[in-house]
C-alpha cells in the first residue's frame, strides 16, 4: 500500500471512530499492532441524544486522599515515571477508599468522561448479579425463556451462566470480538441499529463449529460482544425495568456515584452492554471500590461478586491457544482472571489499555485509562507489586 493510500485509510478509520466511539472492534493499530484509542474516543463526551444520562447518587461515597508509607511511595514513584512515559490519560493506585496516587494527563481533566470500553462487560456482570439476587433471573434461565425471538436458535439454548462465562456456543466473530457488519456500523452512527435485531440474526445466533461438531452452550470460551448484549436485553425483559434504570438503581446509586455519566443504548433502549458506560475518573474509582466492598459481603450478591472475580472457565490451555487475553488463564463472569504476572487478581479490561484490578487478599486496586494497549504487562507488574504491600 502506498503511503498516501495508507494515510487516507487511517484518516477514514479515525473519522469512523470519532462518530462511533463505542465500537471497540473498530480499533486503529499502532506500529506494533496493538489496539489503540485516540483521545477523542477515550475521552468522548455525552454522545447521542438517545443515550441515557446517568445521575449522581443521593449519597455519594467519599474517597479519601491517603498519605503513602515509604514502601507505598516506592511503588507510586514507579507508577508516576511509567505514566509520564506512556500514552495514558489517567492512573490511580488505591487501598480501599484511600486514594494514594491519582494523576491525569491533558487533555483529560476532572470533568472528562472516560470511556470504559469493555470494562462495561464487568459492569453488565454486576447488573446480572443484582437481577439474580432480586429473583428476576436464575443462572439456569435459558435465553429463549426471556427472549422468545431466539427460540429455536442455538443462542436461545444458552443459559445465563453460559453467557456470563462467554460460553454461549454461538457464532464467533472474525478477527475481533464484535459481530457488527460495516453497514451496521453506519446504522449505529445514524441511530438506526437495533441491538435486539442484531443478536437474533442467523449469522450471530447460529452455533459456532469446532473441529468435529458444533459447540454446545457451556462447552467453549469465546470472547465476543454477543453474550453481554444478550444479557443486557435479558435483564430488561426479566426485571421489567429499562437497563439504564437498572444500572442506575443497582450499580450507580449503591456505589455512590458523585457525578453524571453516560450509558449508551439504541433508540429502542437496548443497551450497549459490552462497552456502554462512560464516567468521570473519580466515579470509576467508586465503581472499583464498590465491587471490592461487595466481594466481602455475606449473602447472594457477595457470593456472586466472589464468583465473578474467580475463574469459571479456562481461557485455553495456554498462551499459544488463546485468541484473546493472552496473559489471562481464566475468565470469571465477564471479568478476566488468573493473570500470569499479577497472581490472585481479577481485571476488568477495555480495549486500548483500560484496566481495573482487584486483589483477592487485599483492598488494593489499580486503575488505568490508556491510549495504547501494548504496555499493559507493565501495569500488571505494577499491580503485582502494589498488591504485595498488603493492607
Structure description:
This protein is α+β, with helices and mostly antiparallel strands and about 400 residues long. The protein contains 14 helices and 15 strands. About 35% of the residues lie in helices and about 15% in strands. The strands form 3 sheets. A 9-stranded mixed beta sheet has the order 4-6-5-15-14-13-12-11-10, sandwiched between helices. A 4-stranded antiparallel beta sheet has the order 3-8-9-7. A two-stranded antiparallel ribbon has the order 1-2. The N terminus is likely disordered. It starts with a helix and ends with a helix. The longest helix is centred in the N-terminal third of the chain and has 17 residues.
Give the helix/strand layout.
Elements: H1 3-19, E1 28-29, E2 35-36, H2 39-42, E3 52-54, E4 64-65, H3 70-84, E5 88-95, E6 98-104, E7 114-115, H4 119-133, H5 143-146, H6 160-164, H7 182-190, H8 195-200, H9 202-205, H10 226-239, H11 243-255, E8 261-263, E9 277-279, H12 281-294, H13 300-308, E10 313-314, E11 328-331, E12 336-339, E13 345-350, E14 354-359, E15 364-370, H14 376-387
